Amino acid sequence: MRIVVVGATGNAGTALLRRLRRERGVDLAGVARRLPGPDCGEPYDQVEWHSCDVGLPGAADQLAEVFAGADAVVHLAWQIQPSHDQRVLHRTNVGGSAAVIDAVVRAGVPALVYASSVGVYAPGPKDHPVSERWPATGVPGSSYSRDKAEVEALLDRAEREHPGLRVVRLRPGLNFQRAAATEITRYFLGPFAPVRLLRFGRIPLVPTNRRLRMQAVHTDDVADAYARAVLGDARGAFNVATDPVLTPELVARHFHGWTVPVAALVLRVAAALTWRARLQPIDAGWVELALHAPLMSSERAESELGWHPRHDALSALKELFAGMADGAHTASPPMSAARHLPGRPTALLRGRPAGHGNPY
Description:
Blueprint: E1 2-6, H1 11-20, E2 27-32, E3 48-51, H2 59-67, E4 72-75, H3 86-107, E5 111-115, H4 143-161, E6 166-172, E7 174-176, H5 181-189, E8 205-208, E9 214-218, H6 219-231, E10 236-240, E11 242-246, H7 248-254, E12 258-261, H8 264-276, H9 285-292, H10 299-304, H11 313-326, H12 345-349
Parallel strand pairs: 1-2, 1-4, 2-3, 4-5, 5-6, 6-10, 7-9, 8-12
Antiparallel strand pairs: 9-11
C-alpha cells in the first residue's frame, strides 16, 4: 500500500510517519516544502521525499505526479506563521488544500484523509461536548477557523462531484508532544516567553475565564487516528480529543500557580496589542477561538475507528511543557531548534521578529 503524506515534517506528520512505519506492506512518500536532511534519521528515513510548496502556481500538476499510483493521501500541511501576512497563509492553507484535492482527483487516488480541527466548528458549548454534526462554519474573528471551514467546504464539493472518492476529516483538539515543543513555542509564544521557568514545574499566574476550557490530545494518539482512517474504510468527520478538559483551574493546580480572573475583552485587547507590538506571534483571533470553540465528543472515532487514546490530555500538556523547558525538537526543518528562525530570541538580532516573513 502506497501512502503519501503531505506536510510530513511537522508535528502531526512526524508522529504519523512513526505510526505508519509499524505497518507491514506500507510504502511511505512524504511531501514538504523543506525536506529533512540525509542524516535526520527516524522517522524521516525510509521515506520517498518530494519537495513542493502546495501554495504556489503549478502545485497541483506537481502533486498529481507524486500521487500517481497512491492508495491514499493524508493532507496535513498547514501554515500558522507569518500571522502578519494573511495573504500568504490563505494561499498555502486554502489554495494549497485546493491543489491537493485537485491532484488527488486527477491522479485517481481512492482515499483522502484531511487534517481538520476543532477550529472548524461554529461557536459552541463549554459545558458539554458536541458531535460531528455541529455546524462547521468556523468562529468569527479567527482567520485560522475561517480557513479551516473554507477547506471543508472544498471537501464537501469534492465529495458531491466525485462520490467514489473516500474522504475522511479528522477534527482534533490541540496536538501536544515533547518533540514539538520548540516549534510550538516559536509559532504561538515567541522569543520573550520565559519557557525555561517551566523546568521548575511552576506557572506562577494563570489567567482564568469561564470560557477558557479546551481539549488536547497527544500527537501520537492523533497519528493513530490518522492511521486507522487511512488503513480502514471509514468516511466522514471524526472528532479526536481526550479527557480531562483543560481549564485554567486545572493547570494552576498541577503547576502550582494562582488563577487570575480576566475578562474576555481584556484577553482580546492584550493579545491584539502585544501582537501589533511584535511581542508575541499570534493575533486576537486565537483568543476568539479559545473562548468560543466547542468541546467535542470523540464517541464516533472510538466506535467506528476503534480509536482509544493511550495518553490523557493533562499528561500530554505536562510532556509539552517539559519539552519547552528543555528546548526539545527534532531534526526536521519546521521542528528544528535553529537559532535564526523567527520566534527564537537570536532571530531578533537578525531583524526577524515573530509573526513576520518566512517562518523557516
